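User: Quick sanity check before I run a bigger batch. Here is a single chain. Can you write out its predicted 3D structure?
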Amino acid sequence: LAGMLKPKALSLPGRDQINLAMLVLSGIGMAAFLDPGLLGAFTTMGPEELRLGSLALVGGISSLLGLHLVASIGGPDMPVVITILNSYSGWALCAEGFMLGNPLLAQVGALIGFSGAILTWIMCEAMGRDVVSVILGGAGTTVASSAIEGVEIEGEATISDIDATVEKLLEAKNIVIVPGYGLAVAQAQFAVADIAKKLKGMGKNVRFGIHPVAGRMPGQLNVLLAEASVPYEMVFEMEEINDDFEETDLTLVIGASDTVSSAAEDDPNCSIYGMPVLRVWKSKDVIVLKRTIGSTGYAGMENPILYKDNTEVLLGDAHDSCESIRSKLSDI
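Assistant: Done. Predicted structure follows.
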């Protein structure tokens, strides 16, 4: 998200074979550590020196294997990588508990490991990904050369401002607010909650649409909205609200990108093609709050809905923009 690494998945020739070779070498190193006599015929090193060497070998190879596995998954599936690594840390802690004879460490590690595995499965289901392929670093899959770039987007984005946004909110009767990771980073949930309550008090139908993987992990946006005292009955999951966008007067997208991208349904060459998304572009009007036009999500590609005729973009920090909207509505 910081743009320090390219989102395109690393696809080296013989990728799966490289991973398998490093796994085999790690197994040999572990066997040599447990029983130095296994390699006694191939080296003149003493048992302790062999153990130390095999430990260093396994450590180095494991680091390269982890780096290669993660790099081979690519930017679009990075949210899943987060939960996988969380699960791995739990299993490592569990193994440490067994080695040290500490039942508490083993139990806590197992809890973390299972919770991370369950989150991984939920996110893969929500993103239309094969969990085994993601865990194994994209094993058995190929990456198209245009997987990240997709098709070229034509047209220009329509830039809006605070006054125009407030005017559209006042004109609309059926409003859906779609928060994303950007809202969490900006900590704008309290301002958004006040905006929703103010509009609700005006007799408008205001709802929140939450994508299963919005934010860093499932449930993050639900927790933030609950923290801001948003009534539970105003919050709807993707499956519950996706069919209602055609009847929605205005959709306010705050800090979401990949989870509302029309490319997931329209562009077969897109890296997130096939991922279930919130079909916000089917609303009568859409306003997207973004820092800059060029900013992207995990997939590293611009969202085509920014250039649709029914979409306007409100540039700026989400927290500042939401505070300005709240202030304008409070004066009415």
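Confidence is low (pLDDT under 50) at residues 143-151.

User: Great, the batch can go ahead then.
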